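--- STAGE predict ---
source: upstream dedup step, 1 unique chain passed
mode: sequence only
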Amino acid sequence: MKIGSVSLDNITVLAPLAGITNLPFRLLAKEAGCALVCSEMISANGLVYKSKKTAQLLDSVPEEKPLSVQIFGTEPSIMAEAAAMVESSGADILDINFGCSVRKVVRTGAGSALMKEPDRAEALLRAVRKSVAIPLTIKIRTGWDNSGSQAIEIARIAESCGADAITVHPRTATQGFSGKSDWSVIAAIKKIISIPVIGNGDIVIPEDAIRMRNQTGCDAVMIGRSAIGNPWIFSQVLSLTRGEPVPCADIPVRFGIMIKYLEKSVKYFGEKHACHMMRSRLGWFSKGLPHSSSFRESIKRITSENEAKQIINSYMHAIDGIYS
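--- STAGE serialize ---
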C-alpha cells in the first residue's frame, strides 16, 4: 500500500493517542511490525507560537519511520504554517484531525467541529496542501449524526483538495468511544473515493482487523486503544494476513516488552520523569495476569529504573511459577 510517495510494508497503522503515542510507545509498535506509526495530536497554534512542550512532540528517530504527524486547529493560515514546520521536522506524512470530539478542542472549531463546516474544512485543506510536499491525510468520524453524510462530504472535499488518504473512525462525534462503530460508513467512503481508506474502530482482537478489511474493502487498518499494553497485536495481525497461526504473547515476550518500554522512556524522558509516568503505565501490560492488582499497586511509588526492574522481574518470576 502507498500513501502518496510513502510505501507501507503492510496494512497496520498505529492510531494517534493523546498522551500515549509518544516516541517510546511508537518504537514498541514499530518493533512489533506496525507499518506506520502516528504522533500524538499536536496543536498547530502551539507549534506556530513556539511552545517548547508542543515542539517536543515532533521528536523522532530514524528507527520509527515512516512517521505520520497529526495536527489540529481551525485557521487555514496557522494550519499551513504548522504543517510546514512538521514537514521541516522530517515527518513522512502530515495528518489533520477532523475527528477529536473532546469538548475543549471542539469549542475552538477544530477536530470534529470541522465536519460541520465544509467550507472552512476545504479552505483549511487547500492551504495546507499548498504548504507541504509530503503526503497529506485526514482522520474523520462519521460526523454529528449516524447517517454518515458529513463523512462522505468531507471525504470528497479532502480528495478534491489533494489528500493522499483518509482514515475513517465510524463513530459519531457525540459517541466519543462509546457504543459500536459503524463499519458500513468505511465501506461507503471506500466506494466513492479513489485514494486509500484506512479503517479504524472496534479492532479489539487481531481477527477484527481481517474482518474489517474483508467487510469494508479498506486498504489498511488503524489500531488505537487495543494496542495500549498490547503492542504485539500488530505482529498478530501480520501473522493472520500471511495465513500463519497467531503468535501468543507469552510471559517472556510480555515482560520483555515491559522492560523495553521502561528503558526507552528513561532514555527519552530522563529517569525521574519516566518513572513517574511508568507508575501508571507499566500496569497496562499486566492486564489479565494473576495478581495484576498487586503489581499495579507495587509500581505506584517507583523512583528509579532499577527499582522498577526489580519489581517487574519479581512479578515475572512469580507468574512463571504459576504457569509452570
